[in-house]
Design goal:
Chain lengths: 447, 511
């Protein structure tokens, strides 16, 4: 344990006194949170990286918000529309502006949020970036014709992904495991909904009004800038953004009462794949459930685990094996997956995963193993903080979940509290066969 | 108290950041070093550059370099099994990465200073005392075969297209096989082959030790001493045959049941980053197709104006994406090529978009770049390249590449050179190095014969839009594009089943 204590000492460089740092200080940088009268929250993290600034706008709307039938993929679609300019700044002018300052810019959509980022060099560019970004979030202009053209781009993005069988596997898992919640579909959405996007101009206006509002968005700025200057600019350019007041109600997923199973025949050659999902808890930095499950995923299914070593390294039945217990605002899936080398071994690998879950219900993990996992999680997180972009991107995720940057520290504090008994309790609570969905995918004939 | 500590922290790191020094030493046959000390940094980045790549694969043993280096990064040592290595690395959140390219490969690692000694002891052993165990060999070789046979051909069509383009441009050339080899060649590789390749090439003269971050001052000498156990020697730079220029439009179609068509095209040229002309050609290609940026003209014309696909880009030289969308480092090579990447699009529009891309290339070659675009793109590159080297690994990587190209610092060179480039320089480079008549074109699509027939017959290829009110300017241009003539001779179109690629060296025969 002493090793990572000195690690954090070094990160924070608390030179004045030999203090013992707690996990609650995993995020070592000072930050300020300011909320405008219209509800727009600003998180500023001045950093010493010379001359580079990362400017992230987080809209707390993702595929989770696509609650109406036929609207899957709309959060992602609207992300594309956000690059269409305003009455003050045409898309060409916006593109040229970003090109002139040499900004690295893009956006991504997740289940719970959509994030827009501009990474650029030069403090002197901050004012123009604040002005341009505020303008497009407040004054975005788009019309029906633009919707129809951009919808084809989404179709193209879908096509770019169709050669990936793993994407299909996880689409199938979500579709199988969920009945009512919008986590049933992926961020890209169902193909039939994508094909109908050209007709969705009225809905796009509704979507913008509901979710692209200061009370549903957060600005996160990290890098070489002055906080007071940033706030002056933000007040000036975002102050008139009108609240939405919209409150999203997502469907409550009914408890699963019997095991589910589905299979997909991939048309061309591919290695066989397997994914198993169990309904789990939502993200929480207060309740021990998710923290214990995160550690369990690492203990039982990471590269250091006995099962991974046996199936991947020793017996070589699998090309890969892993667990993903993703953090989501609403209860989501605890997922195990494997790429198997021979399709005759699919059933065997599935059985081994279930056996391991049963073992976790009765056999406590060692304290030493638990310490290794906690150490890994901390080093992994801290390793991601080497750039302004890394700082902003890492924090954006936690901010999207709770709006509070302090959540990351609380979560790592929870990790410290997890005991072997907690892990056994969680295995018993969530890993019932009746709560499982198993999906498989195997390749077709050679072409 | 907290604020005062933070102030100390910021001040300390800022000073440390600005006080970084670099040095390098290497002469033929000796171990090279590239150092980037960053005082106060809690991290240490390793980059072990190996001036050997897949072009060094012996004939008939394609994929051997990849297999050998993968055994170093993903196998056990003489004293530790790979399982034991993973167990030791895990609490440190550490690992060893490797990337194999044509003439250069790189091992990478990053570690916190707390764990430096323990990490380096294992890292060193992995490279200098590999275990070459049979069980690791079987596992890694099987993964390499599965990648060639199933993953590359079945699961990743965009990369598949780029690899077919490489096969086309570099037939009968040391570059002319996939870095992972072929199914046939990899099946024939033995553990003895791996051992022999390691013994033959893993020599000090082929290796540059790269260190960056807050490492102790004695580490560089310690590493050099450790690597001195390797037998002396080096490989002279490969003597590569002249690159073959395509004759006319040469097309290879991989026939595959797929709803989407992927296209990559290009041709070899004679300059890389060390050439004076490179900077002008770079501006031209950034204008024409800057990687994953809306600055790209192809992106604007194909995606933004017409919604045909997710993106369309062009490259002045071999390109590998690193963190975010920035270029990676440490894949330098002697010979280069220009390329265009058309991302997946509906099969129904494949002929139109192929015409459109070649027409835009023709316009670029004939008309050059406008003054307005020239100024914009030059300014863009001057600013965007400031973002290239942010992490320790990126800074070290660019520093190492700078040596290869013959610059003290390539990114500094960019700041000095680009302001001196004129529009005339760019247009001259376009005329000198780009062309529209002799291009290799790799296509992955279904109904390959139907596409071949349409291409040879120059059949009009109109497209339709969901938007009934497309701008007249675009509709007028579409009328030109849909009948834009492509001079494609039937014998220049080769069709092969997708699953037959990478079975043996070269383009598979038509069945």
């Amino acid at each position: 344990m002493h090793k990572y204590l000195s690690f954090f000492l070094c990160l924070i460089l608390s030179l004045a006194s030999p203090m013992i740092l707690q996990a609650s200080q995993i995020f070592p940088f000072n930050y300020k949170v300011v909320e405008l009268e219209n509800g727009f929250k600003v998180i500023s993290i001045p950093l010493p990286n010379p001359n580079i600034i990362s400017y992230y706008t987080i809209v707390r709307s993702g595929s989770r918000n696509e609650v109406e039938p036929g609207k899957s993929g709309f959060a992602h679609f609207f992300e594309h529309m956000m690059f269409k300019g305003t009455e003050n700044m045409s898309p060409e002018e916006y593109d040229n502006f970003l090109s002139e300052i040499g900004a690295g810019t893009n956006a991504y959509t997740t289940d719970d949020y959509t994030c827009y980022y501009v990474v650029f060099a030069g403090r002197e560019n901050l004012e123009s970036v604040v002005k341009a970004e505020a303008d497009r979030f407040i004054n975005l202009y788009w019309d029906e014709e633009m919707i129809k053209t951009e919808a084809k781009v989404i179709e193209g993005e879908y096509y770019a992904s169709v050669s990936s069988p793993s994407r299909r596997l996880f689409e199938l898992l979500r579709d199988t495991a969920f009945e009512t919640h919008s986590y049933k579909h992926t961020t890209l959405g169902y193909l039939e909904d994508i094909l109908d996007m050209p007709n969705q101009f009225p809905y796009s206006q509704l979507y913008k009004n509901r979710f692209y509002a200061p009370d549903n968005a957060i600005l996160l700025v990290a890098g070489d800038f002055d906080h007071d200057q940033l706030m002056t600019l933000v007040n000036q350019h975002y102050g008139d953004w009108e609240k939405s007041g919209y409150s999203l109600i997502t469907a409550k997923e009914p408890a699963q009462t019997q095991a589910k199973r589905a299979h997909y025949d991939w048309p061309t050659q591919t290695l066989p794949m397997l994914a198993i999902g169990f309904h789990g808890p939502a993200y929480s930095d207060e309740n021990i459930d998710k923290a214990a499950l995160d550690l369990m995923a690492e203990i039982a299914f990471s590269r250091s685990s006995e099962l991974y070593q046996r199936l991947v390294i020793e017996e070589q039945k699998c090309q890969s094996l892993g667990a993903s217990f993703a953090d989501r605002r609403d209860p989501y899936l605890l997922t195990f997956s494997s790429v198997v080398k021979n399709k005759n071994d699919l059933a065997f690998v599935e059985e081994e995963i279930f056996k391991e879950l049963e073992r976790l219900k009765t056999d406590p993990v060692s304290e030493e193993k638990l310490d290794d996992i906690k150490s890994n999680l901390k080093y992994s997180f801290a390793n991601s903080l080497g750039t302004t972009d890394g700082v902003a991107g890492s924090l954006a995720f936690y901010i999207s979940l709770t709006t509070d940057p302090g959540s990351v520290n609380r979560m790592f504090d929870l990790y410290e509290q997890v005991t072997p008994q907690d892990i056994m309790a969680m295995a018993n609570k969530y890993f019932e066969i009746s709560n499982s969905s198993v999906v498989t995918l195997t390749g077709g004939k050679t072409q | 108290m907290k604020n005062s500590k933070l102030f100390l922290f910021i001040g300390f790191l800022t000073v440390a950041f600005l006080m970084t020094l670099s040095c390098t030493k290497q002469s033929a046959g000796t171990l090279g070093t590239e150092l980037l000390p960053v005082e106060g940094s809690p991290m240490v980045s390793f980059r072990i550059l190996f001036n050997v790549g897949s072009a060094n694969d012996p004939a008939g043993k394609e994929g051997l370099c990849n297999l050998t280096l993968s055994m170093l990064a993903g196998g056990g040592t003489k004293t530790l099994t790979f399982k034991e290595i993973q167990k030791k690395f895990y609490p440190m959140a550490a690992g060893v990465g490797v990337r194999i390219e044509k003439e250069m490969s790189v091992f990478t690692g990053a570690i916190h200073i707390d764990n430096l000694d323990e990490y380096y002891a294992i890292f060193k052993e992995m490279l200098l005392e590999p275990g070459f165990r049979e069980e690791d060999f079987i596992r890694i070789k099987t993964n390499q075969l599965n990648f060639l046979e199933k993953t590359l051909v079945g699961n990743m069509d965009e990369q598949f297209g780029k690899e077919i383009l490489n096969l086309m441009m570099y037939a009968n050339h040391p570059y002319g096989h996939h870095d992972a080899g072929t199914v046939e060649s990899v099946r024939g590789l033995s553990l003895d082959d791996v051992n022999a390749f390691y013994q033959e090439h893993f020599k000090p003269g082929n290796i540059t030790i790269g260190l960056a971050g807050g490492y102790p001052t004695d580490l560089p000498n310690k590493v050099k001493d450790d690597f001195s156990v390797l037998p002396e020697g080096f490989d002279p730079p490969l003597e590569l045959p002249a690159q073959r220029m395509p004759e006319g439009l040469e097309i290879v179609i991989a026939d595959k049941q797929t709803p989407a068509t992927n296209i990559s095209m290009g041709f070899p040229h004679t300059i890389g980053k060390s050439s004076d002309d490179y900077f002008a050609l770079w501006i031209a290609c950034s204008h024409f197709g800057e990687h994953r940026q809306s600055l790209s003209l192809l992106y604007q014309k194909i995606r933004e104006d017409r919604g045909q696909n997710y993106g369309d880009y062009a490259y002045a030289d071999h390109f590998i994406q690193g963190r975010r969308k920035f270029p990676a480092t440490n894949y330098c090579r002697q010979q280069q090529y220009f390329s265009i990447w058309i991302r997946a699009l509906a099969n129904s529009n494949r002929h139109f978009v192929l015409r459109q891309a070649l027409r835009e290339l023709k316009k670029l070659v004939e008309e050059g770049i406008s003054e307005e675009r020239f100024e914009l793109v030059r300014k863009y590159l001057l600013n965007y390249t400031k973002l290239y080297a942010q992490t320790l690994g990126e800074r070290l990587g660019w520093q190492m590449d700078s040596r290869y190209y013959g610059y003290k610092n390539f990114l500094t060179e960019v700041q000095e050179r680009l302001p001196k480039i004129t529009r005339e320089d760019v247009n001259k480079a376009i005329k000198t190095y780009l062309n529209t008549d002799n291009v290799c074109i790799a296509i992955i699509t279904q109904d390959a014969q139907g596409l071949k027939d349409a291409l040879v017959a120059n059949t009009p290829s109109p497209i339709s839009y969901a938007n009934p009110n497309m701008p007249q300017k675009i509709m007028d241009e579409d009328l030109v594009i849909q009948t834009f003539p492509l001079d494609i001779q039937p014998e220049k179109i080769h069709i092969a089943k997708a699953s037959n690629f990478f079975q043996k060296t070269g383009i598979p025969k038509t069945e």
